[in-house]
Structure formats: structure tokens, C-alpha cells
Amino acid sequence: MSNIKDIKNPAPFYTLKDAAKELNRILKVDYYDTKKLLNMALVYDLKLYIFAKGWEGVAYYSEDMTPEYDERTDVDKFGGYTDIHMRHDDTIETIVNATLNSFLSKGCLLQIPPEAIKILTLEKKCNFDSNISDFLNLLDIADSFTANPPNYFLELFKSGSPSTPITNHLDHSKIDIDVVKSVVDIMIYGIRLKSISKYMTLNDFVEPKEKVHITIDGKITDLLLQIINRTDILITHYQLTRIIDGVLVIRDKEQPTFEDLITHQPSKKPQGKSQAKIEAQVAARAIALHLWKNDKEQKIKIGSMCQHIWNTLCETEHREQLPDKIESLKDWITDIAPAYAKLGGRQKEY
Question: What is the domain range of residue 310?
Fold first, then answer.
């Protein structure tokens, strides 16, 4: 019986139902089905996707710049946030979201988050609303066979100039070429589709899923909810071969909640750090957690939080333990930052 790797022109991705059939055929078992694959994705590092086309979205991200660029644009040298920093934000935000929307326009795969998978193990459909985290990342369909797909968002910056695939989505007036050439890395933390970030009107969906009736300002309006069904969930050829080869590994434990971080400090001290440095980092994280927990309007980005922490700790016994640059405080707090704080540029309404 042939292995899936022996197929000359394999499909780039499969529905969970078709994937289960292939697994049972190749492994000569009668074990796998859709629910079992969903449960496996909760426990193992198995990535699942949906196909998206014709939608628009925004990405949550952070960027690393060259040391020379960071030194030139140090906010302290300019006395605060200036046009230079605004051009930086506009450039990064414009190119990242242009890249995203180029993929969404032509069609790509979006990795679904664990919250949605949990619901789909219990129910046949999942309402993708504000209670569900954003999609984790995107994958070009052509890379469905690839173990390590490229960072699509970084490729354009590495080229040093705007590339043709995203021309229709790129506002060139917001591009500062010096910023483009100074980007070292782009880290994507999540993707939110505009079409499913809130209730939308009938004209906002390319392929509407479910219609509901609600009352707005005393008027009954037909609106649409984006519903993801089990049948919408896809697994790539590469992920399927990982199951066949038995190379899945247990997922990392979920990140703690803000409440957990506030009430529980790590019991083990980080190696290679002095007690004074540890106490300074604990103090910085406590400040960040408090401010973000009370940031009801979701306005405080990581850069601004670093400035808050610096200004506060400079007046305390922790002053000597602070890094040389304010932006270096990002390393202390990025892992506890909420998603909106990692969104580059200015927060936008959509």
C-alpha cells in the first residue's frame, strides 16, 4: 500500500474528514476521525487552518530594528514621540498589513487558535467573535508541503523596496525607505480579519455564513456572523505527514492569565542574574501588569509602557539595574503584554 509521500501530485491540504481517511488507509487502522484530529491539535503541536480569500485584516506584530537605527531614533534625543517615530510606525504598519491583505486577497491559509479548536471539539461550529483570539498566522498555500515556511512579512523589508505582489495594497506615501532597510525582524502575534472582528452588515462578507436579527437604535437589522464549521477546518500535507511519521510533540503549556501573573511569581530565580536585577524586573512587570489591567481603552503599546516603567523605576532603588536604553525594557515585558499592545503603529478603529 502506497504512502502519502509516494503520491506524485499530493493535495496541498485536506479537510479533517479526508485527512482521517488517509491516515486510516496508510497506517492500516480504523482509529482516526475529525474529532480525534481536533483533540490531537489541542495536545500536540499540530497546526490547523481555514482557507480565506477576499477578506481584509490587520496584523498584531512587533519589530526589531538595527542598533544604529535604534540609536538614531532614541525618543530621549527628540524629547518624545515625533514625526520621525510616526514615519517609522506608518512604514511598518503599512507594509505588514499590505502584505497580509495581499495574501488574503489572492487566498491563503489562516492558522486557527486553540480557543476555536476547543469549541469545535464539543460543537460542530464556532462563532468567531470577540470571545475568540485572533488567527495565529498565515500560510501561503504553495508552502503547504514545507516544514519551515518563510516569514512573508519580513521578506519585503529584506528586499529593501516594495515588491509587486502587494502593490494594490500599499500606500507608498507612507513608506520611509530608511525604515524599510533598518528592519531586522518582524514577529507576528496574531491576525484579525475585519470581516469577523465584529458584527457586519450583509454587504461586508464575500461568503456569508449565518444571518441573525438584532435591534439597533430601535430598528431591526439583518446582520451576519462568521461561523467556522468543522468542515471548514483544514490540515496541510506537511502536518499530515508529521502524524504519519509520529513526530508530533506535546504543546507548551498555555500562557498564564494576567491574574495568575499578578498573584504568582516564578519560584525559580533566572540563572545568571543578580538578586537586584531580578527584583528590578519583577517591579517592572508589576507596573506593566497593573497599567495594562486598567487600560480599558487599550491605548498603551509596548513602547509607551517601557517609557512608563523607566520613568517610575528611575526614581527608585532599581535605577541602577535598568538597561542602557528604554526600548531594551521590551525584553522584560513582551511576554506579558496583551495582543493590542503588540500591534505596531497607532491603534485603529475598524
Answer: 256-350
Same domain, 215 and 324: no
pTM of model > 0.70: no
pLDDT digits (tens, 9 = 90+) for 123-174: 888 876 545 667 889 999 999 999 999 999 888 787 655 444 455 556 666 7
Alpha helices in 198-335 (DSSP H): 237-245, 258-263, 275-293, 302-313, 330-333
Phi, psi dihedrals of residue 182, rounded to the nearest 5°: -95, -5
91 and 184 housed in the same domain? yes
Exposure string for 252-281, b = 16+ CB within 10 A, e = fewer: eeeeeeeeebeeeeeeeeeeeeeeebeebb
- How far apart are the C-alpha atoms of 68 and 347, rounded to whole Å? 27
Dist. CA 268–CA 255, nearest whole Å: 17
SS3 content of the chain, % helix, strand, coil (to 5): 50, 15, 35
Task: Kindly indicate the confidence band of residue 13, based on its pLDDT and cuts at 50, 70 and 90.
Answer: very high
Asked if 56 contacts 101 with a C-beta cutoff of 8 angstroms, the reply is: yes
First to last CA, the chain: 52
- Compute the CA torsion angle 177, 183, 189, 193 (nearest 10 deg): 10
Q: What is the DSSP letter of 227?
A: E
The tens digit of pLDDT for each residue in 183-222 reads 999 888 888 776 443 433 333 333 434 555 544 445 555 4
pLDDT in tens, 326-347: 888 988 888 788 888 877 644 4
CA distance 133 to 144: 23
Residue 40 domain-assigned (yes or no): no
* DSSP codes of every residue in 148-191: S---HHHHHHHHTS--GGGGGG--GGG--HHHHHHEEEEEEEEE
Q: How far is C-alpha 181 from the geometric centre of its chain's CA atoms? A: 23
Within-domain flag for 5: no
Q: Is residue 237 part of a domain?
A: no
Q: Which three cell numbers stand for residue 145?
A: 508541503
Q: What kind and span of H or E run contains 88?
A: helix 83-106
Query: Rounded to 5 degrees, what angle do the CA atoms 74, 78, 81 make?
Result: 80
